[in-house]
Design a protein that fits this description.
Rossmann fold, 6 strands
Length: about 240
Amino acid sequence: MSSLYLFRHGQAGSRDRYDALSELGHQQTMRLGRYLAGQKMRFTALYCGELQRQRETARRIAEAFAEAGLDVPEPIVDRRWNEFDLDAVYRGIAPQLAEDNPEFGAAYEAMQKEAANPQSTVHRRWTQSDIEVVRAWVDGRYRYDGESWAEFRERVRSAFSTVREYGQGDVVAVSTSATPIGVWMGLALELSNRHIMRAAGALYNASITSFRIREGEPHLAAFNHVPHLDAAELRTFR
């Protein structure tokens, strides 16, 4: 039996520069790394997606291990762990959705105006516009030339072929994002698409979700674990 640990990246930046950790995100991921080092975790391999926020999270974990005098493998970048491209989904689907649903169009326009203020809370929450455009993408309701939901889900699931190569006692760690973790929850628990997204939406930044790989199948061991984020202001969703 091998073990798989999935770490969601720390809090990212504002909507217009989301692919970078915020100051709080760096604090969260350093706490994550120090917690893992304090538990004397030994990783056989450390993977990360190719997105900046995922790579920065892996780097912070490696730095914390180095501080503790512990070895950690060099992160291996694997795009299969990338999050889906929300900006591309918006560009492809939002205009069609707005044409069919004027209420969505008005809400989307209002959200864009609000996002022009860097201090707005819209940068730290999912809006109804976000929910509606992502649901339309997941359901395949509109023509979209980018990565479809089915393609995204299969991309993430295909990483299982690599995880299966590890053997008894191996521990694999991955710095990734919320929706890929949700897809793995779906693998382990046979969740519907809607419930995969709900699982992803529940994840804290810099959280730990783990699986045991037995007989070629993932078995959930822990979900959304955040013992290292011991104050309310450290626990964020976006």
